[in-house]
């Protein structure tokens, strides 16, 4: 590369390269004309890095304006940490002026729209200018500060990593504790229930059970909150199985673990109709919309009891957990439903 002498004025570096290359966001007018932005960028870089020569140009059209920053010369070799630091600063400065006024649509191929596009590059005729004693001393200071920065970063990352390990250890211990507590609660549930599988002649209906529209909740209190807000629907449920709790603690544990799997809920629940027009789903699919709207669908469910009183209903929909839960505060128990 050709070494070119620079003027005495350019040699007078008031701010060290390390300090000049440290980026901090600037308050700028992102809505002004592209040429005005380029003018500001050109002036800023000239003041920030007087030992370098830049070319800041604009182009494109009113739909796709662009700003290009080229580093034409400096006292630093290509690929050096010094030139890389200046390059990165230029990129940050350019991006500081950009803003997206129309975000990209993730469902189409439409890209986002920006006030301008641009990039930073080295000029293809990039030249290395003379390294004065002042610049060499500045490079030594840069090396020293970079070494200190890298050591501090290494120490910071190590500290963060150790803190992360501690947090994970605490989380793992808490998770283990919760699983042990959950295991105890499950054992308590199974040791305090009596499951009755009802014969067909023993089955009965619970009319107007309240099923929250927001389902798959973990606790019974969450269903109660939804129903209290009025966000629910009435359903008639045919009870095919009963689960009787012997203790209030067992019922409370189950009420707070509704999304856990329990074998006494397996293969229960589902929808059905006693409409004599329908012998199979083919009959329903062959109906027109008006006829379909007249079909009354009911649910199969498991009645959860404590102290001989129905507490709530579970419609597992064939799963092993309480997929849907119906409250029975104002429901009526009836043998048949007409």
Order of the strands making up the biggest sheet? 7-8-10-11-12
The number of distinct structural domains comes to 2
Helicity, as a percent range: 25-40%
| Sheet having the most strands | 5 strands, mixed, barrel
The number of distinct β-strands equals 13
Order of helices and strands: HHHEEHEEEHEEHEHEHHEEEE
The overall pLDDT, averaged over residues, is: 91
Amino- and carboxy-terminal Cα gap: 97 Å
Secondary-structure-derived class: alpha+beta
Question: In one word, what is the shape?
Answer: elongated
Tally of individual helices: 9
Radius of gyration: 37 Å
Spans of 5+ residues with little confidence (pLDDT < 50)?
Answer: 1-13
- Report the portion of residues in β strands: 25-35%
Structure description:
It is a single chain. This protein has 338 residues and is of the alpha+beta class. It has two domains: 8-131; 193-334, no CATH class. 37% of the residues lie in helices and 26% in strands. It is built from nine helices and 13 strands. The chain has helices at 8-11, 17-20, 34-48, 81-96, 133-190, 220-228, 248-255, 281-285, 289-293; strands spanning 53-60, 65-74, 100-102, 113-114, 117-128, 193-197, 204-212, 232-245, 270-272, 298-306, 309-315, 324-327, 332-334. The strands form three sheets. It has a five-stranded mixed beta barrel with strand order 7-8-10-11-12. It has a three-stranded mixed β-sheet with strand order 1-2-5, covered by helices on one side. Strands 3-4 form a two-stranded antiparallel sheet. Strand 1 and strand 2 form a beta hairpin. It is elongated. The protein starts with 7 loop residues before the first helix and ends with a strand. Residues 1-13 have low confidence and may be disordered.
């Amino acid at each position: 590369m050709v070494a070119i002498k620079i003027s005495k004025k350019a040699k007078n570096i008031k701010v060290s390269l390390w300090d000049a290359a440290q980026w901090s966001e600037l308050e700028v007018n992102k809505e002004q004309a592209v040429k005005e932005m380029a003018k500001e960028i050109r002036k800023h870089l000239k003041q920030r890095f007087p030992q370098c020569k830049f070319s800041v140009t604009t182009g494109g059209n009113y739909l796709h304006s662009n700003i290009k920053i080229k580093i034409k010369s400096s006292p630093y070799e290509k690929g050096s940490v010094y030139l890389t630091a200046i390059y990165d600063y230029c990129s940050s400065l350019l991006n500081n002026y950009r803003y997206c006024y129309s975000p990209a649509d993730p469902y189409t191929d439409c890209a986002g729209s920006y006030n301008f596009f641009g990039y930073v590059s080295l000029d293809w005729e990039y030249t290395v200018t003379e390294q004065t004693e002042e610049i060499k001393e500045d490079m030594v200071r840069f090396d020293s500060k970079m070494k200190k920065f890298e050591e501090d970063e290494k120490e910071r990352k190590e500290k963060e990593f150790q803190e992360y390990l501690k947090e994970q250890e605490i989380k793992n211990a808490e998770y283990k504790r919760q699983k042990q507590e959950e295991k105890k609660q499950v054992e308590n549930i199974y040791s305090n229930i009596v499951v009755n599988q009802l014969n067909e002649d023993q089955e009965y209906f619970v009319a107007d059970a309240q099923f929250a529209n927001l389902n798959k909740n973990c606790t019974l209190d969450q269903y109660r909150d939804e129903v209290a807000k009025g966000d629910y629907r009435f359903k008639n449920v045919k009870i095919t199985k009963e689960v009787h709790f012997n203790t209030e603690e067992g019922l409370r544990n189950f009420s707070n673990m509704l999304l856990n799997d329990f074998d006494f809920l397996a293969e229960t629940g589902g929808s059905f109709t006693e409409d004599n027009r329908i012998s199979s789903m083919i009959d329903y699919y062959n109906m027109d919309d008006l006829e379909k709207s007249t079909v009354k669908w009911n649910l199969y469910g498991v009645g959860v009891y404590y102290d001989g009183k129905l507490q709530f209903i579970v419609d597992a929909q064939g799963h092993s957990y309480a997929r849907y839960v119906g409250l029975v505060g104002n429901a009526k128990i009836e043998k048949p439903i007409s």
